[in-house]
Amino acid sequence: MDESVSLIQLAHRLEEVVGELRGIPVDVERLEDSGLVRRQIARASRSAGELRAMHPVGSSETGRAEQRSRRDVLDALRDGMTMRTIIHASVLDDPRKAARIRELHTAGDLHRVVDEPIQQLLIFDRTVAFVRITPVAYAPGALVIRQQSLITTLIDLFEQTWTRAREVTEPALRLSPREREVLALIAAGRTNSAVARALSISEAAINKHVASVFTKLELPATEDDNRRVLAVLAYLRGAAK
Question: From the CB of residue 31, how many other CB atoms can be counted at a distance below 10 Å?
Answer without folding.
Answer: 18
